[in-house]
Write a structure and sequence with these properties.
Distance between the termini: 38 Å
Order of helices and strands: HHEHEHEHEHEHE
Largest sheet: 6 strands, parallel
Radius of gyration: 15 Å
Oligomer: single chain
Strand content: 5-15%
Number of helices: 7
Shape: globular
Strand order of the largest sheet: 1-2-3-4-5-6
Helix content: 25-40%
Length: 174
């Protein structure tokens, strides 16, 4: 649905997600989707054996990503690519994501993490920084479209990250 105006796309595919045994990749980028994330999250939670490896929800307009983040921790599969860039991450949900990244078996082999499109604060990135510093699997970090990310950049040299996306970022001088 890339570059479409389909606000209900997420809820429209929820039944498929709930019943599928084979979906490995879901890419719903730039759909202008704003509805149905709760239903989608419930579908993920109901289908713990979904072999999902990639989830890209960039550039959508969600109010609360908490249900989705919590549902990802319930999956039995190993997610390797997760992008929530520019789709409603805020301080609370970024902190929740950091905690889930540190504790969830389904996200322990994450290779790609997209968390761009927000203005970071010291408090919101503490758990994400711990994750970046503790994992040996993460190779790509997408911070595109972000502000105040210098603290995150300081963690990169001691991490496993080899690819860093800083497109359209607003650089702070700290």
């Amino acid at each position: 649905c890339r570059n479409n105006d389909t606000p209900s796309m997420i809820s429209d595919i929820s039944q498929l997600v709930e019943k599928s045994k084979y979906i490995r990749s879901i890419k719903l980028m730039n759909c202008n989707s704003s509805e149905g994330l709760d239903i989608f999250s419930q579908a993920l939670s109901a289908n713990k054996s979904l072999p999902l490896e990639e989830l890209f929800l960039n550039d959508n307009e969600f109010d609360d990503l908490s249900p989705l983040i919590n549902s990802l921790s319930c999956l039995q599969s190993q997610i390797t690519h997760l992008s929530l860039t520019d789709c409603g991450l805020n301080e609370t949900t970024l902190d929740l994501l950091g905690n889930i990244l540190l504790t969830s078996e389904s996200l322990k082999n994450l290779k790609y993490l997209g968390i761009g499109g927000m203005e970071y604060s010291e408090n919101s990135i503490k758990t994400v920084l711990k994750y970046i510093q503790s994992t040996s699997h993460l190779v790509t970090l997408d911070l595109s479209g972000s502000k105040n990310f210098s603290t995150i950049l300081k963690a990169v040299p001691g991490s496993s990250i080899t690819d860093l996306n800083l497109s359209d970022c607003i650089f702070d001088d700290k």
